Structure formats: C-alpha cells, structure tokens
Amino acid sequence: MKILWLFAHPDERSLSAALKTDGLRTLEAHGHQHRVSDLYAMKWNPVVDPADYGHDPTERFHVGPASERAYTEGRLSPDIASEQQKLAWADTLIIQFPLWWYGMPAILKGWFDRVFVKGFAFGITDPATGRPQRYGDGKLTGKRAMVIVTAGARAATLGPRGVNGDLNDLLFPLQHNTLWYTGMSVVPPLLIPGADRTTPETYETATTRLRDRLLTLPSTTPLPFRHQNTGDYDDNLLLHPHLTPALTGPAAHYTSPPPPAHI
C-alpha cells in the first residue's frame, strides 16, 4: 500500500499521536510506504481564501469555478498543491482525529475544504449520459479510505442505540458525502473509545486492533454505500421508493446494513 496518513491532533503526547506512531511503525515493518500530513504540526491553514486561487479580490468570489480554473491552470496555492500531490501518489487515505462535538476538528474540515477542489476531487461528467460522476464514481475512484477516531465516550454509547448516536451516522458526512462522493471506497471506521481513561491494558488492546485493521485494510469489505449512477436513484437523484421503503436518512443509502462501527 501507499498510504497518506492525514492526522489532526494538537498534542504529540496524546493517545492519538501514540496510535499514529504505532500505526506508521506497523506499516513500515510490513513493507508499506507512507506519507504523513500532520495538520497541527504543519500549522495548516484551514480557511478558504481568494489568494488560494490567485483570484482578483475586486471580483465576486465563486469558489467552485475559481478553484477549478486555478487547478487546471496550475495556479493553486503551493500548500494545496502539495497535499494534492500526496493524495495522487497514495492508493489509501487514512484520516485520524479525535471526535470533537461529534465531528472533525476544524483544521481537518479545512483540509478538505481547500484540497478537494473542483477538477481535482470532483467535477467530471460521464460523456455517455451527461451525469456527474460521483457517489462511487469520480476522480478518486480506485483509492481506499479508513477513518480512525478516538472518543471519550464508551463504545456502546456510539452504537445503534447509544445516546451519542451511531458512529457511522456521525461520520456519514465524511464517509459518504466526501470520500464516497469523490469515488473512494470506504472501509468501516476504527473507533478507539474511552480515550480519556486509557490504561496500559486498554492501550495494548487499541494498538492490537489498529495493527489488525491496517494489515487487513486491502481485503476489508468497504461500507456498502449505493452508487449514484447504477439505477438506485431517479433522474432527480432521489432513491427509488421500492428500495428500503421503511428507511430514511443515512440508513437508506446503504445496500445492506453496515457493520457496527465499534467492532
């Protein structure tokens, strides 16, 4: 594998950082290549700005077209271009972060905002049908992704009946609406719960689970998201009523129930 490890935690002494170090060591020991984007260490700028695209500040700033022109013409900000080169090199993307207010840290959201520009991560059309190629097809088709999250909550509380909501639902905007949208296959996430109460024993369990998930990543069955362009959705991109008629929301957009995220 050629892995880009995208990491967002502000403290190198944290559990998250220790897991990252162990994970990278495991990959190296088994002959895999990796590159790392440690966003806090890089002091990554998460804010989209006209200067990213060499845009004339006196004109209206329409982000999609401006970013696409800059990408096509090679005028993207160097920090954005560097991250795109890392991702183009990789066949696998690992996204690791602490679950803050049930989502990504702002710095990580800003990485996607700035790096996944039109023309690079999305914005192609099937010439035969005229339909946009997304949700299972797209610029990043062929790559795999896995999300690793640490959380203070207990595992059961991030399950199907937990008070915090099911982790796959919490991660739906990232796993389905960002990664799958761009064509990437997404394997089930790895949850490391009880992060604020880690003991030597629970840390050993966490590293064992992490190593196993990394080494089996190429053969892990991806989450069974529905493809946009294989007949499940009508011309208005609405799921056909005969498909999972009793389900709404994220659950309706899987072809079969995903495995529990805490397993």
UniProtKB/TrEMBL annotation:
The alphabetical list of record keywords is: Oxidoreductase
An example of a GO molecular function for this protein is:
NAD(P)H dehydrogenase (quinone) activity
Name of the featured protein: NADPH:quinone reductase
InterPro entries found in the cross-reference section: Flavodoxin_fold, Flavoprotein-like_sf, NAD(P)H_dehydrogenase_qn
Native organism: Streptomyces gilvosporeus
Keyword Secreted among record annotations? no
The family note in this entry says:
Belongs to the NAD(P)H dehydrogenase (quinone) family.
Pfam families found in the cross-reference section: Flavodoxin_2
A Gene Ontology term for the protein's cellular component:
cytosol
Indicate the segments forming the Flavodoxin-like fold domain, all copies: 1-212
In terms of SUPFAM superfamilies, this protein maps to: Flavoproteins
